[in-house]
Amino acid sequence: MSHRDLYRAAFEAAEDALLLLEDGRVIDANPSAVRLLAGPEEGLLGRELAGLSPLLQPDGQASAEGLKQRIDAASRGEPQRFRWLYRRPNGGFIQADTQLAKLALADGSGPILRAVVREEDKEQRRLYALAVDMLGVATLDGRFKELSPSWERTLGFSRQELMARPYVEFIHPEDKARTLSETDTFSTGAQTLTYENRFRCKDGSYRWLEWNAMLALDEGLVYFVVRDVTRRKTAEMALRASEDKLRALYEGIPHVLIVADKDARIVSVNRTHPGLDPESVLGRTIYDFTSPEYHATLTQALDTVLKSGGQAHYEVIGLGANGERAWYANHASPIRGAQEVTNVLIVTEDITERRRAEEQRRESEVRFHAAVEASMDAFLTMASHRDGGEGVADFVITGLNARAAAMLSMQREALLGRRLSEIEHSAEAGVLLDKCLRVIRKGAPLEEEILLPTPAAQPSRPRAWVHHQIVPIRDGVAVTMRDTTDRKRLEDQLRQSIERLEAYAEELEGKNRMLAEENAERERTASVLRQQQEAIRALSTPIIQAWEGVLVLPIIGALDSGRATQIMEKLLGEIVRTQAHFAVLDLTGVEDVDGPTVDHLLQVARAASLLGSRCLVSGISPGVAQAIVELGSDARTFETFGELEDALR
């Protein structure tokens, strides 16, 4: 049998449908192809594959156009493999795997294509459709060729929408570069590949996908199984975020956190004292950093935690960060494994400042109690007492100083724990009870000063003034009392003194008013006298214009310096006003003059001559003439006449 016969026999016996195509038409077909695609009556010879297909494929592509593209590619020597929908002879449809390849012919005739059509396994397709993972095939140019229905269920896109675009367009922008870098490893000879990225859903969200891909280089395809790992990735990211938060909390907490094993060896620590390297601490025991005097305390705490699973608290003294003595409070808690305590967590807090503050507080309390005890005021603290009901009916003394005991007239020991209502002999106690009840009812402080009633048992005792200040405190009151009797007595004395002073002041004010009135009257009298003197002075120095150019000034009475000055001022003014050429001073009425007066008269004469007026003097008495001579005055300054009549001539 020749090779041709052998090939023909194999061609006829093949279970797959085999066809030979030339220019897209069937030129030969084996029996399996006839049964699958046409039936014995119709046959396949001369028919086109597009005629054996529906007008459109499930992805919406036109069958004729899609087949033409694949046949052209196969004719160029590019093998093609694709899923295709064909019509059955009975009118149904069949989904088949189709392969096209160019045959190498020795005679060099036109391209003959071999088509292998294999009907898909229905059971396999059902499994393919029901798969939870997303299955698919992609070409080497980055497009989906086939996708399982689970893609639609997971992403919301239809398979046709996914296959219509390069799958890289669906990848999250931040993951594209990494995905392309991963898939490039196929070019280095890798056959399988696993990677993760975020893939866009139809609603715009993204889901994390885990890809397991296998390269089929001979088919020019990549087969892949994809699993939605969004929940796992979300849980991982949440876990990482939680771990980051816990780590930040662990490292940022201000206390020292130590994790130790059952042998007290440190396996973890969040911080150490300055100068200590955390790495140098790991592996050493807690005892190495604890003073020997506290080893027994530490052992007891570790036993409590590791053996009984309880918690322990202890305090130790050690070295602080600056090398000084420091107090540390330690709280130990168990860390449990599956069935038992495996480690112990010790939280160490530096309480040095707190201990110092407590010591300062205790010292302050001692000083405060000493000040209270030495105070002249009385201090009491009392707790509310309820007799069966909800309301406060009485108060129990819980604390007081010596002054308070003295004011209540009892020993301090006898007063502690006693109710106010039981102190019957003290008038202070009865008043105080009423005021404290009022403070509790109103919930507001009270400050009053009252005069205590006289105790019935001591009628001769003088009444006393007391200042009360009552403040509500938790479940009770605090009372400050001060005996103000002496102050009140001094205030009364002061008030009486002030009243007397006010009376004296009022009397003095009346006398001052009378004196003011008298002074005012004196001022009025003096003013009248001054006016009269001015009038007399004006009358005593009259200036008479005898005729034009001649002024006469008769002077009567005593002539002193003041009057001489007045005469000069008045005479000079009249000389200027009247342009007089002569001024006659008549001294007939002048009895006596002194030296300064004569000097003033000479000055009057000289001043008049400076104004262009001659000064004539008449009526000079012997006394005036003698004074002029004795003073050595120059009488040539003016002309003298015995009588006024002579001067006027």
Write the SSE topology.
Layout: H1 3-13, E1 17-22, E2 25-29, H2 31-37, H3 63-75, E3 80-87, E4 93-102, E5 113-119, H4 122-130, E6 134-139, E7 144-147, H5 150-155, H6 159-163, H7 173-183, E8 192-200, E9 206-216, E10 221-228, H8 230-252, E11 256-260, E12 266-269, H9 278-281, H10 295-308, E13 312-319, E14 325-336, E15 341-350, H11 352-374, E16 378-385, E17 394-400, H12 402-407, H13 412-415, H14 427-442, E18 446-451, E19 465-473, E20 476-483, H15 485-540, E21 544-547, E22 550-556, H16 561-578, E23 582-589, H17 595-610, E24 614-618, H18 622-630, E25 639-641, H19 644-648
Parallel strand pairs: 22-23, 23-24, 24-25
Antiparallel strand pairs: 1-2, 1-5, 3-4, 4-5, 6-7, 6-10, 8-9, 9-10, 11-12, 11-15, 13-14, 14-15, 16-17, 16-20, 18-19, 19-20, 21-22
Helix pairs in contact: 16-17
Task: Please name the defining characteristics of this protein.
649 residues; alpha+beta; Beta-Lactamase; 5-stranded antiparallel sheet; 19 helices; 39% helix
The CATH topology of the largest domain is given as: Beta-Lactamase
Beta content comes to 25-35%
Largest sheet: 5 strands, antiparallel
Q: How many structural domains can be distinguished in the coordinates?
A: 5
CATH class assignment of the largest domain: Alpha Beta
Give me the secondary-structure category.
Answer: alpha+beta
In one word, what is the shape?
Answer: elongated
